[in-house]
C-alpha cells in the first residue's frame, strides 16, 4: 500500500472515531441499570405528555432505577369535575438535602405551594398524604448533580374533602314581601341557618359560602365568603337576617327577576364572590312566588341562562309555599332534577337530601327540563 493510500485510510478511521466521540458527547444521557452519568440538560426521563387526569400513578424518571442528575420534571394534574386531588406516596427515596418534590395547589407553578418534600427550604423531609383545595395541581421534581437514588412513586386520586362535596355556594335568601308572613320568613331563615348549612363542611378550602339577602327588587345585603369562613359564622350571620328584616310584609316592591339578577351580578363581582379556580359554582335561589307577568318571567329566564353560560354555575331552585307554578319555575333551574318544592314552610327540611345531591351532581348539557 502506498504512503498516500495509508494516510487516506488512517484519516477515514480517525474521522469515524471522532464522529463516534461527538455522537456520544451529543447524547444527553448514558443510562444503565448500574449507573447514570452526568447529563448537561434537564427533562431527562420526564414524560413527553405531562398532563395527568383524575386517578393514576406518577413515577420519577426511570423508576424503580436511579433517577438522572441535574433533572427537572413537570407534571400537570387535574381531578375529575367537582373533585379535588389526593396525593400519597407508595415509595419515596431521594437525596433529602438536595433533591425534592414540590406540589403546587393550583394550575401553575405560581400557585400557592402545597408542600415541598426535601431540598433547600423544604417544608417536610418525608412524604405524607396531601389534598389540593382546587381541581388542579402542578408537581415538580428536581435533582442535583451528585447523589442519585431510586426516586418516588406517587398516587393521585379525585376525591371530595368536604360534605356534601367541595363547592362554592351562593345563597339567594328571599326577604321579599311575597314570602307572605313574618312567620314564613322566620321559618326560611331558621331552615337555612339551623338545618341546611349545618350539613355542609363550611370552610374556605371546603364548602365556600356567600350570602345575598334580597330585601327589595333593587336592594340586597351581601356577605362574602371571607365574611363567613366556617359553619358557626354562617349560622350566626343567617340568623341576623331576622334583625335586618323585622317585618317582611312591609311595603316593598317584589318580582322574580331580581333574585336571578342579583345572583348573576354577585357571581360577576370577584370581590364579593371569591370563588376558587377549578371548583364548581352553585347558586341556590329561594323562591316564594310566581313571576309577576310574562316579562318578569322572561327576564328571570335570561339571567338564569347567563348564570349557566357566562358564569359556569348551576342554579338550584327551592320553591317555598303553596300555589307555585312548578313547571315554569323548574325551567329556571340548571336542568331537570335541580328544582325542589315544599308547599309548607314547615317541611323545608325534607328537601335537604335532594338539595345536597343536586349540589354534588355533575354538570349537565341540558338547559332546563
Describe the fold and architecture.
- The protein is an alpha/beta fold and 369 residues long.
- Helix content is 25%, strand content 25%.
- It contains eight helices and 15 strands.
- It has a six-stranded mixed beta sheet with strand order 12-11-10-13-14-15, sandwiched between helices.
- Helix 2 (182-196) runs antiparallel to helix 3 (231-239) and helix 5 runs parallel beside helix 6 (294-309).
- The longest helix is centred in the first third of the chain and has 24 residues, at 3-26.
- The termini are far apart.
- The model is unreliable at 6-10, 12-40 and 365-369 (pLDDT under 50).
- This is CUB domain-containing protein.
- Pfam families: CUB (PF00431), VWA (PF00092).
Mean pLDDT: 87
Q: DSSP strand (E) fraction?
A: 25-35%
Rg calculated over all Cα atoms = 30 Å
What structural class do you assign from the helix and strand content?
alpha/beta
Sheet of most strands: 6 strands, mixed
The total count of strands amounts to 15
Task: Give the arrangement of secondary structure elements.
Layout lengths: L2 H24 L24 E3 L2 E4 L12 E7 L5 E10 L6 E5 L8 E5 L12 E2 L4 E7 L8 E9 L7 E8 L7 H15 L10 E10 L2 E5 L7 H9 L1 H4 L12 H12 L12 E7 L6 H16 L3 E8 L5 H5 L8 E4 L9 H9 L9
Parallel strand pairs: 1-3, 10-11, 10-13, 13-14, 14-15
Antiparallel strand pairs: 2-9, 3-8, 4-7, 4-9, 5-6, 5-8, 11-12
Helix pairs in contact: 2-3, 5-6
Pfam family, one: CUB
Keywords: Disulfide bond, Signal
Protein name: CUB domain-containing protein
Amino acid at each position: 500500500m502506498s504512503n498516500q493510500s495509508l494516510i487516506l485510510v488512517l484519516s477515514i478511521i480517525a474521522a469515524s472515531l471522532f464522529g463516534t466521540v461527538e455522537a456520544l458527547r451529543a447524547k444527553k444521557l448514558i443510562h444503565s441499570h448500574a449507573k447514570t452519568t452526568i447529563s448537561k440538560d434537564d427533562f431527562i426521563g420526564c414524560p413527553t405528555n405531562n398532563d395527568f387526569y383524575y386517578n393514576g400513578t406518577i413515577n420519577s424518571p426511570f423508576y424503580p432505577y436511579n433517577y438522572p442528575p441535574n433533572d427537572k420534571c413537570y407534571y400537570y394534574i387535574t381531578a375529575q369535575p367537582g373533585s379535588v386531588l389526593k396525593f400519597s406516596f407508595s415509595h419515596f427515596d431521594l437525596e433529602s438535602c438536595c433533591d425534592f418534590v414540590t406540589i403546587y395547589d393550583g394550575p401553575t407553578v405560581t400557585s400557592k405551594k402545597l408542600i415541598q418534600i426535601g431540598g433547600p427550604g423544604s417544608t417536610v423531609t418525608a412524604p405524607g398524604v396531601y389534598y389540593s383545595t382546587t381541581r388542579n395541581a402542578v408537581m415538580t421534581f428536581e435533582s442535583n448533580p451528585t447523589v442519585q437514588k431510586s426516586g418516588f412513586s406517587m398516587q393521585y386520586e379525585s376525591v371530595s374533602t368536604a360534605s356534601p362535596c367541595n363547592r362554592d355556594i351562593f345563597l339567594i335568601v328571599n326577604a321579599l314581601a311575597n314570602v307572605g308572613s313574618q312567620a314564613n320568613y322566620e321559618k326560611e331563615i331558621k331552615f337555612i341557618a339551623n338545618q341546611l348549612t349545618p350539613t355542609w363542611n363550611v370552610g374556605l378550602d371546603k364548602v365556600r359560602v356567600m350570602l345575598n339577602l334580597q330585601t327589595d327588587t333593587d336592594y340586597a345585603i351581601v356577605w362574602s365568603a371571607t365574611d363567613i369562613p366556617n359553619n358557626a359564622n354562617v349560622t350566626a350571620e343567617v340568623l341576623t337576617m331576622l334583625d335586618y328584616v323585622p317585618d317582611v310584609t312591609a311595603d316593598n316592591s317584589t318580582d322574580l327577576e331580581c333574585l336571578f339578577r342579583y345572583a348573576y351580578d354577585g357571581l360577576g363581582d370577584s370581590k364579593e364572590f371569591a370563588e376558587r379556580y377549578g371548583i364548581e359554582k352553585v347558586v341556590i335561589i329561594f323562591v316564594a312566588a310566581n313571576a309577576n307577568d310574562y316579562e318578569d318571567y322572561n327576564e328571570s329566564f335570561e339571567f338564569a341562562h347567563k348564570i349557566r353560560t357566562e358564569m359556569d354555575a348551576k342554579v338550584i331552585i327551592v320553591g317555598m309555599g303553596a300555589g307555585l307554578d312548578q313547571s315554569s319555575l323548574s325551567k329556571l333551574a340548571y336542568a331537570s332534577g335541580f328544582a325542589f318544592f315544599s308547599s309548607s314552610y314547615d317541611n323545608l327540611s325534607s328537601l335537604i337530601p335532594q338539595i345536597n345531591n343536586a349540589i354534588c351532581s355533575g354538570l349537565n348539557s341540558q338547559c332546563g327540563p
